[in-house]
């Protein structure tokens, strides 16, 4: 992954109309944007939404402030694009209440890899806010501050959502290993 | 059920701090209490170990490669880039500014001359409380002021937008009354011709405004990538500015929203 300073430099050059820099900017960020869009909408729409995200990002480049994180800036645009899409088609919530973590593709028991794949499937069943906070901070490598910027919420909310997402995932882990049904939680 | 008499921190709160600690985002002020709780609470100890396991597992799964934008999608997105300023546009811009400065100088000199040389006309022909001498002084002063405004606008273009309503209405009204005065023979055509300078000035101002380079907010500094946070020490002090808008400690409302 390209570091933030280099990405910021590409964005600034794109702002001055440099198409090469803009193309490089896309190449180095599209993996993350795509991952986020898949998590927020659906695989079928993600490609169109990725194009819309970059189109909207380039349009708003004149207002881009290099002071803030360029990835948080781009991903917050992606979040809005996905939100507009979901609002537009007025689909039912993506999280199907009938799908439970047990329905996650269950690879042969044992082995970190299959467990990891199963855990990723569980991630898709989490509460959308928790899933997004977890995705941003754990899989896309954003700081809590940047994730808060993307989600447009306080840092404390991100911290709390990440902890709860972990709690949900641990719960799944515990279920699979036939340990205690749920980790202990008191009222705090 | 595990309760903690030894620490004021409950399991839920402790786990939130441990979770943040895994990400290097824990509030150092709260960490000692969370660790004290952890040392005494087997439930949280197991939770912490499981959280580390989840972390490890979730990162071992290979990321599904993104298909990437197609050439067509990339081209469509690139079409939205801010337009670079063409060299021709820049030449027009600077030519217009030089011309406006010239027009302004001539206008100011004409105004000054009119001010110095006026005094003609019948001193007894009064009009709205002022005799003709004063009326011509007033008009000369106005013409001089317009010349100054043109020169200043050529130097500091951001003032130009404000001159357009004044100049625009002046040119429209002047054109109407000049036409009437010409028809009724109340004015010398040469005098009307001298107003042409103002029309030229207005045209130049519009040209300057439309060819102006796009102004970008200048970054005061480019932040380096997120610095690694030290495990201990009061690093929050360095982050005082962002933290001012986003409190580090989860407030109760934030927790509700997360639920």
Describe this structure in words.
The complex is a heterodimer of chains A (188) and B (259). With 188 residues, chain A is an all-alpha fold. Chain A has two domains: 1-94, Orthogonal Bundle (Rna Polymerase Sigma Factor, Chain: A); 96-188, Winged helix-like DNA-binding domain superfamily/Winged helix DNA-binding domain (Arc Repressor Mutant, subunit A, Orthogonal Bundle), CATH 1.10.10.10. Chain A contains eight helices and no strands. Chain A has helices spanning 4-15, 19-40, 43-59, 70-89, 112-123, 128-139, 144-151, 155-176. Chain A is globular. Chain B has 259 residues and is an all-alpha fold. Among the domains of chain B are: 8-60; 87-210, no CATH class. Helix content of chain B is 63%, strand content 2%. Chain B contains eleven helices and two strands; from the N terminus they run αααααββαααααα. Chain B has helices spanning 11-22, 31-40, 42-60, 71-78, 87-117, 132-155, 160-183, 189-194, 196-210, 240-245, 252-258; strands at residues 126-127, 130-131. Chain B has a two-stranded antiparallel ribbon. Chain B is elongated. The model of chain B is unreliable at 1-6 and 218-259 (pLDDT under 50).
Largest interface: A-B, 78 and 73 residues
- Write the CATH homologous superfamily of the largest domain in chain A: RNA polymerase sigma factor, region 2, helix turn helix motif
**Share of helix among residues of chain A?**
55-70%
Strand content of chain B: under 5%
- What's the helical proportion of residues of chain B? 55-70%
């Amino acid at each position: 992954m390209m570091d933030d300073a280099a990405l910021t430099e590409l964005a600034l050059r794109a702002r001055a109309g440099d198409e090469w820099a803009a193309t490089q900017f896309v190449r180095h960020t599209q993996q993350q944007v795509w991952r986020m869009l898949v998590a927020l909408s659906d695989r079928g729409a993600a490609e169109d939404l990725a194009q819309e995200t970059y189109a909207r990002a380039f349009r708003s480049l004149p207002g881009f402030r290099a002071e803030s994180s360029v990835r948080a800036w781009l991903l917050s645009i992606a979040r809005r694009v996905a939100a507009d899409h979901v609002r537009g088609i007025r689909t039912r919530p993506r999280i199907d209440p009938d799908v439970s973590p047990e329905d996650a593709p269950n690879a042969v028991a044992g082995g970190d890899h299959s467990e990891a794949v199963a855990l990723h499937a569980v991630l898709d069943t989490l509460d959308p806010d928790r899933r997004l906070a977890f995705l941003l901070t754990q899989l896309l490598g954003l700081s809590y501050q940047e994730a808060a910027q993307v989600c447009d919420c306080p840092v404390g909310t991100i911290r709390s959502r990440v902890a709860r997402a972990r709690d949900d995932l641990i719960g799944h882990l515990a279920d699979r290993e036939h340990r205690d049904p749920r980790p202990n939680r008191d009222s705090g | 059920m595990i309760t903690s008499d030894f620490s004021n921190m409950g399991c839920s709160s402790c786990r939130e701090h441990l979770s943040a600690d895994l990400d290097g985002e824990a509030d150092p002020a709260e960490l000692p209490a969370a660790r004290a709780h952890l040392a005494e609470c087997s439930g949280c100890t197991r939770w912490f170990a499981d959280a580390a396991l989840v972390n490890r597992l979730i990162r071992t799964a290979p990321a599904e490669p993104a298909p990437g934008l197609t050439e067509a999608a990339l081209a469509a997105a690139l079409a939205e880039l801010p337009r670079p300023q063409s060299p021709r546009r820049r030449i027009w811009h600077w030519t217009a500014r030089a011309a406006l400065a010239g027009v302004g100088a001539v206008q100011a000199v004409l105004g000054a001359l009119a001010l110095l040389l006026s005094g003609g006309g019948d001193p007894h022909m009064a009009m709205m409380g002022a005799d003709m001498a004063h009326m011509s002084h007033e008009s000369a002063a106005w013409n001089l002021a317009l010349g100054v405004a043109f020169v200043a606008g050529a130097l500091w273009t951001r003032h130009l937008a404000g001159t357009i309503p004044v100049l625009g209405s002046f040119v429209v009204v002047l054109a109407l009354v000049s036409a009437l005065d010409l028809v009724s023979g109340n004015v010398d055509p040469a005098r009307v011709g001298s107003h042409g300078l103002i029309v030229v000035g207005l045209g130049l101002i519009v040209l300057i405004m439309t060819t102006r380079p796009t102004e970008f907010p200048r970054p005061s500094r480019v932040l380096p990538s997120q610095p690694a946070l030290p495990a201990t020490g009061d690093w929050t002090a360095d982050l005082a500015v962002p933290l001012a808008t986003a409190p580090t400690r989860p407030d109760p409302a934030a927790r509700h929203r997360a639920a």
